[in-house]
Specification:
With about 500 residues, this protein is mainly α. It is about 55% helix and about 0% strand. It has 2 domains: about 25-250, Orthogonal Bundle (Vanadium-containing Chloroperoxidase, domain 2), CATH 1.10.606; about 260-495, Vanadium-containing Chloroperoxidase, domain 2 (Orthogonal Bundle), CATH 1.10.606.20.
């Protein structure tokens, strides 16, 4: 077996995590081919060629080729085997978070005092496309995880239809570098996830095609180097993954994201909020004034509930600016501003997830992936976990942004409160961190009930961090957390009827 280092540093430099290594899953989930999918209506919506028999000349030639590739590995090849052996779903989600962090940079103003909009057709120009802010990142994670999950459900269907054993089960002389379960090998789950993930991430981060090309090739080759799949396993998996990804991205093209930054709508939003009693609207505190971030993101299509539910879920109004409740909340922030404790500063900074990070949704996707890894989930069950969390985070972003621009409530900075953890460029009520965290924690608590208190505590701390960071009034955070829990309940309801048994 390949030697492993004791620890790695995650992309959040403040966190040290154990090295994640390959394992035999607690269950291969042999019935997962019948689980409920999101976009693919049935596994037979995608096709897979019938594999050749393991006694055929073609297959025996593939076995010989596999032996030649896996018998003697360079250090670089060994490292790739260990890296990808952790799990296809785990690693491609990690890559997505890395890309989100890389592109989470707000455009700077130009000499004319304007903020140029990133151009998808010229993604590496300044400013780079995309600006991977929290709503954008949440959407990318959702489409990635749904593509992986739907593709793997179809994969499991075909695996147990064809029942081709892993190469090392056919020929015991094959050198394998990773644990081998009883899961049939055709089509390759790794190739399926790699192809589906590549297609989604290429669309979401078009300037990273060379990087993604290299990851795709390395992932495919790692399965040969590890002795885990013959070439036809990989070819069939890539074909299936590409078919599913095309269906997923067809949905993405029509979900309303292209109109999410429609600045022409903001004047009407402000007037509507004032008509409901708002005395002072939120205004960007940057100089020059920056246009509000994605004012129409609340109109993007949700995953786990419809538009009517979106309106029903929307929190009630925040306190009027001339009330005792508002004054009390503002005075609390002024007091923290004068005497912030070290622990309050620590919490505010830990959860800030601002520019250059993979955002609050990425923070929770990492938590979900690690929990599934620690539970030794199969690829399909890990994908299910991340799809439930990913779609919930996107729904939370949509519902939160709908609320923010419905009320257009001013931030504490308009009343003299300063912050050291970044200044979000959108209205205050309700807190995005709190909404994302409440939603993700609710779903994860349902999947991992033994860790429910941990998730709840993390969500509460994330919510409170925005008060300690002087970004939000306490009622912003409290209502965001409640809103998030309600949003998460829809994914929980779905999870109970998806056929997975959890």
């Amino acid at each position: 077996m390949i030697g492993l280092s004791a620890a790695i540093i995650s992309c959040d430099k403040s966190i040290t995590e154990p090295q994640r290594v390959g394992y035999i899953p607690a269950s291969v989930d042999d019935k997962a081919g019948a689980w409920k999918t999101y976009i693919v209506t049935a596994p037979t919506d995608v096709t897979v060629a019938t594999p050749t028999a393991v006694t055929s000349a073609d297959y025996l030639a593939e076995i010989a080729d596999l032996k030649s590739k896996s018998v003697s590995l360079t250090q670089e090849q060994q490292d790739a085997v260990v890296y990808w052996g952790t799990g296809a779903v785990y690693r491609w989600n990690e890559i997505a978070r890395e890309l989100a962090a890389r592109y989470n940079t707000p455009p700077a103003s130009n000499a004319d005092g304007k903020y140029p909009v990133p151009d998808a057709a010229n993604p590496l120009a300044d400013p780079k496309f995309p600006f991977a802010n929290p709503p954008y990142a949440a959407r990318a994670f959702a489409y990635l995880s749904v593509a992986q999950y739907d593709a793997l459900v179809a994969t499991w269907n075909y695996k147990y239809q064809f029942k081709r054993a892993a190469p090392s089960k056919v020929d015991a002389t094959i050198r394998v570098a990773l644990p081998t379960s009883t899961l049939p090998s055709y089509p390759s789950e790794d190739a399926v996830v790699a192809a589906a993930s590549y297609t989604v991430l290429k669309a979401m981060f078009p300037g990273e095609v060379p990087f993604l090309d290299a990851k795709l090739a390395e992932h495919k080759n790692s399965r040969l180097w590890a002795g885990m799949n013959v070439a036809s396993d990989l070819t069939a998996g890539a074909d299936l993954g590409n078919q599913v990804a095309a269906k997923i991205m067809a949905r993405a093209k029509t979900d309303g994201m292209s109109a999410a930054n429609n600045q022409a709508l903001t004047a009407g939003m402000i007037e509507a909020a004032k008509g409901r009693g708002l005395s002072e609207a939120w205004v960007s505190q940057e100089m020059p004034i920056r246009p509000p971030m994605l004012p129409n993101y609340g109109a993007v299509t949700t995953w786990n509930f419809d538009k009517a539910a979106l309106v029903t879920l929307r929190p009630g109004p925040p306190p009027a600016l001339n009330t005792a409740e508002f004054t009390t909340a503002l005075d609390e922030l002024k007091a923290i501003n004068k005497n912030q404790t070290r622990d309050q500063a620590r919490i505010a900074n830990y959860w800030s997830d601002g520019a250059g990070s993979y955002t609050p949704p990425g923070h929770w996707m990492r938590t979900a992936a690690n929990a599934a890894n620690e539970a030794k989930y199969s690829e399909v069950r890990m994908a299910r976990t991340l799809a439930l969390v990913g779609t919930t985070l996107m729904d939370a972003g949509i519902a939160c942004w709908d609320t923010k621009y419905f009320y257009y409530y001013p931030r504490p900075q308009q009343f003299g409160v300063k912050t050291s953890v970044g200044l979000p460029n959108f209205p205050s009520y309700a807190s995005g961190h709190s909404t994302f965290s409440g939603a993700a924690a609710a779903v994860l608590s349902s999947i991992f009930p033994d860790k429910a208190q941990d998730f709840s505590d993390e969500a509460s701390e994330a919510s409170l961090s925005r008060v300690y960071g002087l970004i939000h009034y306490r009622f912003d955070s409290d209502q965001g957390l409640i809103h998030g829990k309600k949003i998460g309940s829809y994914a929980i309801t779905r999870s109970k009827t998806d056929g997975s048994g959890l």
